[in-house]
Amino acid sequence: MPSAIRIEELTKDYAIGFWRRRSYRALDRLTLDIESGEVFGFLGPNGAGKTTTLKLLMQLIFPTSGRAEILGRPVGDITTRRRIGYLPENPSFYDYLTAEELLGYFGELFGYSGPDRRKRVSGLLDRVGIGAERRLQLRKFSKGMIQRVGIAQALLNDPEVVFLDEPMSGLDPLGRRDVRQLILELRDQGRTVFFSSHILADAEALCRRVAVVAGGRLAASGALADILAFQVHGWELVMSGASPDLVSRVKPAIRRATEISPGRYSLELSLDQPPDRILAELTAAGASLVSLNPMRDTLEDFFMKRVAEMGTGARAPHAEETRASR
Amino acid sequence: MRAVRVVAVNVFRESVRDRVPYNLVLFAVLLIGSSYLIGQLTAGQDVKIIKDLGLAATSVFGLFIAIFIGIGLVSKEVERRSIYALLSKPVSRAQFIIGKYAGLVLTLAVNVSVMAVAVYVILGYMVWTEPPTIRAGWDAPGIDPALLKAIFLIFIELMLVTAIALFFSTFSSPILSAAMTFGLYVAGHFNSDLKNFERVVSSKTAARLARGAYHILPDLSAFDVKTEVVHGLPVTFGYLGSTALYGLAYVAALLLVSTFIFSRRDFK
Questions:
Q1: A90 at the B interface (CB within 8 A)?
Q2: Is the pTM of this model over 0.95?
């Protein structure tokens, strides 16, 4: 698969302070390769560097070092912008325009002629669920509706690569479901979707591959299944027909036993304790196996662990300074 | 070119939606009210006063639009973050700056044109109502086409002030931009005094600094031919052409520097 987006050692430093200027590293040598046609989740807590990365890719800010390419062209190439779409984080548009006028304005920038433009605009507004409100000025729109308009404007030019910065932000459950559906449709159409989120369930529902950033640095990247495969930390054995005495007998070998209902137990075993022996002992004593599953970290657990390992859970100012001084 | 035009048209639309044309109503009320009052107070001089007032009001109203909208052209886009989505479209930062500028110049052109028509309508009314004996004593005809020369240079001056406001707004806050633009406007009108500053100061350094400032600051007094036009004194087309060229060259330089600064700016 050819790369849709290539990011190499991308770094962004900001100068902070008025009198005593110091450097603050918002993004630290990020390297990523996003394949064409994939939905790629770019995950991290607030302030991890996700928006900084997207702004660098849109050339709204300039890198301190490193480089990035979109569709084989360096970022900032005007011709590439005809082939990409971008939803900024918490988008804000011209509040004196109606949704229709805003999309019409952007459509003109893409050079769409009158009838084609009107058809595109109308179709997209229908697609994102903006009905009769499309003729209201955007100042009368709720946050969720603005987000929907933002998504529509990002798709106006049938982009090959779509960048969505926190696309679910401000949306109600129905809206979130719609956006998930839309992203899957984009994937089915062969488009590349690069979206940032701190909501891990979205990534679990949509992505095959993800990258996790924390404190401006890449914490992990790869197939979601691979990342989670390394995170098996035990086994869960559910047995029925087990007596309390039997459970007490095997208790030294298990981490935790929970009675779900009379005679039905959930037994947690640590990873270094193969379940075969205990299973054999329990079945020999008359208990029946209901299920046996590996216990995995959720992406949420993984995320929290990596953030904690990197020491930037709350992105405290001292942590930033420490990083900047490295 | 298309991107510049599309951005410019949107600036014009924004100014209409922000009710900028309402200033024209105020202008008309001011002009009609004052012409009535002046008509009561003076005999024979009233047409001169109306011309003076009409041109001065065109200049001042235009100045307010140029400064107060000019300073927000870029900073408002950055503050409300609408620039994020816009710059992800096929629009370069240079096209954005020039489009923004062209949009405000278009707004000013419409504004100044309507004001010019209003001045001529009032003058036409005066010509119609004044007896021929009084009209014979006027320095210049009531409906004098030469007024257009003054209006033309007012417009070029407004273009220049807009470029100054836009320049400041590419790197500073709206309040600071307004203060600096207004300061430069005032300094620009006294610029010709700096040329011969050595006559009033003994320090050679001060004289040299003043001379340097004279060359750098725009000479806005050159655009003011209101007195000449009102009193029927000649303003040659050669002067109009050279002054307009000077103004447009200054505008081009300011847009170039604005684009240079803006093209390197991070939108944090």
A1: yes
A2: no
